[in-house]
Design brief:
The protein is of the alpha/beta class and 191 residues long. It has a single domain (9-189), classed as Rossmann fold, CATH 3.40.50. It contains 6 helices and 5 strands. It has helices at residues 22-32, 69-82, 123-134, 151-159, 170-178, 181-189, and strands at 8-15, 35-42, 90-94, 114-119, 139-142. A 5-stranded parallel beta sheet has the order 3-2-1-4-5, with helices on both faces. Helix 2 (69-82) packs antiparallel against helix 5 (170-178). It is globular, with a radius of gyration of 16 Å. The N and C termini lie far apart (51 Å).
Length: 191
């Protein structure tokens, strides 16, 4: 597939995706407009590599990370396929955001071929952008509107028995049901 003017070969987005929700899907669609292949980097993929981050307290806690890497990968894969994104246009990889020196082993990093796209809403996103730029990566920051939906809100709704289903793509809803995700989130958050 030839690149359109202004496009790059790879556009990398990342997040914990705990769980993958509709705003994440919109983020991926935006990235697909900027490049040939979307690379979805899943952070907090290994608890042993997940560091405490002063700019985002609690993101390392088990209650903020109820789903395993492989489960999130399946949710993301099926949500993208359901949204008619061809499998040839995306890859899902682990991404050690807390260890920028390791990124080249996980995600495309050549600035001539890869763009790292970040939506910046908080000091934590600012810190991630700073780390990626310091690592020599090509970074595009999108600022502006505050997040309309966060995974923490989806998890809160699960615990409160409120409507969480309308916040996630149908494929993700299916996985959360199969994985008994609501009960898992409740068990972790109600302690």
């Amino acid at each position: 597939m030839a690149e359109a003017p202004g496009q790059v070969r790879f556009v990398v987005v990342h997040g914990r995706f705990q769980p993958f929700h509709l705003a994440h899907l919109a983020y991926c669609r935006l990235a697909l407009e900027r490049g040939e292949v979307l690379v979805v980097g899943v952070t907090n993929f290994d608890p042993a590599l997940t560091a405490v981050e002063p700019a985002r307290p609690g993101r390392h806690e088990p209650a903020a990370n109820p789903f395993r890497y492989w489960e999130r990968s399946l949710m993301i894969r099926d949500a993208l396929l359901e949204a008619a994104v061809p499998a040839s246009r995306f890859a899902i990889v682990a991404m050690p955001i807390g260890h920028p020196e390791r990124l080249r082993h996980y995600v495309p990093c050549d600035p001539a071929q890869a763009l790292h796209l970040l939506r910046v809403y908080s000091p934590w996103e600012e810190e991630k952008a700073r780390r990626l730029m310091a690592a020599g990566l090509r970074v595009e920051v999108i600022r502006g509107q505050p997040k309309r939906l966060e995974a923490s809100e989806v998890r809160r709704r699960m615990v409160a028995s409120e409507d969480w289903e309308s916040c996630v793509p149908p494929a993700v809803r299916g996985w959360l049901v199969r994985l008994d995700g609501v009960e898992r989130v409740r068990a972790l958050m109600i302690k």
